[in-house]
Design a protein that fits this description.
about 160 residues, alpha+beta, Multidrug-efflux Transporter 1 Regulator Bmrr, Chain A, nine-stranded antiparallel beta sheet, about 20% helix
Length: about 160
């Protein structure tokens, strides 16, 4: 794990909201697949090969997810899509491997945050219901949901 300063980023994509159970059952997958199918609708992509999933834990039993691409500021949001601004700041960066359960990875991240004395940041515009209220996952756009051996998780933190 490392910490890196990052600039503000604008993500445009599709939104899904549901429970942790629904996500574990794969009910989030159709939204990810639809976003991938609509890639050409999104103009101004910074890196078309990097699919970004932003999870905001804004409810007790689940979260809201936006899956899409980072775009240049000022890019229009296509019909039926939404956007999320990822704030500038310091981020804890962790690599998740396919052979590991994602809940185990997030448990390790929580432990690392405590060991380093870091506090996960909470977006000002939401009520948070998780120890890590904002989770950003960077995936290989061609391999997400197919054969992705590794992806990065970014957690905004205060030192």
């Amino acid at each position: 794990m490392k910490i890196r300063g990052m600039r503000e980023r604008l993500i445009i994509g599709l939104e899904w909201a549901g429970t942790f159970e629904e996500a574990a059952e794969g009910k989030i997958h159709p939204v990810i697949n639809e976003a991938k199918q609509r890639i050409e609708d999104i103009k101004g992509k910074v890196n078309p090969h990097e699919f970004i999933g932003v999870s905001t834990h804004d409810r007790r039993d689940g979260f809201t997810y936006i899956g899409g691409w980072e775009v240049d500021n000022g890019t229009d949001v296509p019909r039926g899509m939404t956007y999320r601004i990822i704030p500038e700041g310091d981020y804890l960066i962790y690599k998740h491997r396919k052979d590991k359960d994602i809940s185990e990875t997030y448990k390790e991240i929580k432990e690392e945050l405590i060991e380093r004395g870091l506090t996960p940041l909470k977006p000002e515009d939401i009520d948070a219901f998780d120890d890590i209220p904002l989770k950003i996952e960077l995936h290989n756009a061609e391999k997400i949901l197919v054969d992705e051996p590794i992806f990065e998780i970014h957690i905004p933190v205060a030192r």
